[in-house]
Amino acid sequence: MKKETVSFGHVLKQIRKERKLTQKMLSQNICSQSVLSRIENDEELPNVLVMQNLCERLGVTIDQVMTLHSEEIQKVNQLLNQMAYHFFHKEYTELADLLKQPAILDQLYLDTDLQLYYYYLGSCEYFLGRDLELALQHLKQGLSYTFQADKHYISSNEIQLISCIGRVQTDLGQKKEGEANLAYSMELFETLPKERIDCRLAKVFYNFSLFLYQEKRYEEALAVVKSGAEMVRKQKSYYYLEELFQLKGLIYKALGKKEHGEKYFKISNSVQRITNL
């Protein structure tokens, strides 16, 4: 049976929603929100320049959008949602099993989906196999699908990837390169509009503060940890909060403030119990 081909506007809308972008966010500086609405509802066909700019902001190519089908979109979204669930809950063994599925790469069409695949793969290699060189290789490969230093739109996933690359580099003893990437990911976070801040960016704060702690730059580490915990609070999330509070306890302990340290060790344990319910 021939697969149903869906319109450019329909696929664009699906990808926009998957990326958690509003019409206003996607259309900004490209076209009016009303024009985007008409495009998504197949009431207007965009010119090539607008089409290209919209696709670039979504991290896809025009060809990728034009060749997708509704059945394929649904199947890929289901797979990516499973991966995202295991990744968010740090279930790396289950995530690794999903990534090992036969011909999984043949199911991924968009650059942003391939980016996620290699982000997850590199993370599994880091946390499970501790193969730092391979983890770094795959994280860099994931970033390469969409990242351009001079582009106007930086995604949450790209910022996380840069931070994770920095963390692996420091573990490999590449301190100069690692610190540069960790600091760069923090700089990029500061450029994000409030509506695009994702709770998963807590990892960016943790990675940088962990490096600063390991370098015995305790006051700097403490400032970053506090900012990270505040960001998570505003997002009403627990993601990486346990790790941030545990690290905060270690920093206070290193500063000779044992009572403060014990306080945050207890808070970290409480968060762990909550998240394990």
From TrEMBL:
Pfam families with a match to the protein in the record: HTH_3
Single Gene Ontology MF annotation: DNA binding
InterPro entries: Cro/C1-type_HTH, HTH-type_regulator_Rgg, Lambda_DNA-bd_dom_sf, TPR-like_helical_dom_sf
Annotated ranges, domain HTH cro/C1-type: 12-65
SUPFAM superfamilies tied to this protein: lambda repressor-like DNA-binding domains, TPR-like
Domain of life: Bacteria
Name of the protein this chain belongs to: Cro/Cl family transcriptional regulator
Organism: Enterococcus canintestini
